[in-house]
Amino acid sequence: MNSHPEARQVTKKASSLFSCVSLRFSRPFTWCLCLGLVLILLVPLASGEERSSEKGSSVLVATQPYSAQKLNPISYAADCSVIVTPPYKTKVLKVWIPIPPSNAAQEVSASTFSTFPQEVKPEIGREKMYGNQFAYFEFQEPQGAQIIRHKFQVQTFELRWKIQPDQVRSVEKWPTSFDSYRRSESQAVVVDDRFQKLLRQVVPERKNPLLDLSLVMSWVGDNFTYDHHDASLVADAAKAFDTRRGHCSDYHGFCAAMGRAMGYPTRVTYGINTFPKNSPSHCKLEAFLPPYGWVSFDVSETQKLIASVKKDGKLTESERADLISAATQRLTAGFRDNTWFLQTVGTDYDLEPPAKKRVPVVRTAYVEADGIALPDPDPADPVKREFAWMTAYEFKTEGKVVNPFVEYSTLKK
After folding, report:
1. Where do runs of H (alpha helix) occur along 4-116?
2. Separation between Cα atoms, residue 102 and residue 208, nearest integer Å
3. What three-state secondary structure class fits 367?
4. SS3 content of the chain, % helix, strand, coil (to 5)
5. At the N or C end, where does the chain have fewer CB atoms within 10 A?
6. Which residues pair with 287 in a beta bridge?
7. What pTM, to 2 d.p., does this model score?
8. Cβ atoms within 10 A of the Cβ of 291, count?
9. Does pLDDT of 2 surpass 50?
10. Strands 340-345 and 266-273
């Protein structure tokens, strides 16, 4: 028997967490999630590491920078273009392009914009709710397609929070700076009575903010189907509730709504993948978990990774089980890859300069022709053949780029 008092306490908590979940669920994704949480609790003691209470800040501030461990920086020379084909005889074409910020997770420099064939200088604006910055272009009586090119340098880091569930603390009263991350929105992250009803099934008893959110992510992993054709593109939580399918936007919009239904601050963050991909736009879920602050989770990509592992006939049963356990543990511990950089934070806000209406999200651009929004494209949709605008990206780097949601070797770190 282990005589270390802290070991006994953590073992008791791990047993309690495992029992809470295992009594309620039996699907593979959930079982792996439970094992991951138990391992996160036990590993620091087993390795003799001293656990620190100095993660992040004791003061709750919604603008708190990321406090994760920064690893494996990669620098990219980015060349990004948006090609817009306005409707015939458009009088005014307006385009908002998100400008990726520099923060604790990424460093952006040498940003330049150009347009072709009509030469337009951008107006730089910052929207008030989340602080997202945009380059705004206004084309008068555009003739044919217009190209907006954005070149910049970006260095991204791999972020690992290594969350210890027993250190995550609950908050009785959140400061008002978190209101925009806890509200039910008019679009995107909508929270209604249906979510509360489902929560009573998925999280029947509140234990711990991380455990509660992990149960939600587990349920999504077991019940959602990844589908580019039947996707909202706008983090539509209500649509995801009804169909239980879609892509990253729907997965993370739904998880954000479930988190807010429990009173936790959550947000959807949109960015760009830097490896070759038909649709480079990708979003992640973030939740504010004191004392760690904002923590990133990628539910949709983890689900796809686990599905790939399960179908890989070259793996033994033991290898397959180890990889699935590692993937779920990485998810619940908080992880953000260095093959993605952030462009916008949050959902349902007014652009600056103002657009005709509030936007649910901005993925790669927001476009209006004579005050009418042009539909957001998804080139990964296997059925869609016509697009009002499209993007083209090139990222050059001297280092090797490894997709952590494809390469199994990244799970062994």
Report:
1. 5-22, 28-46
2. 32
3. strand
4. 30, 25, 40
5. N
6. 266, 295
7. 0.85
8. 18
9. no
10. antiparallel
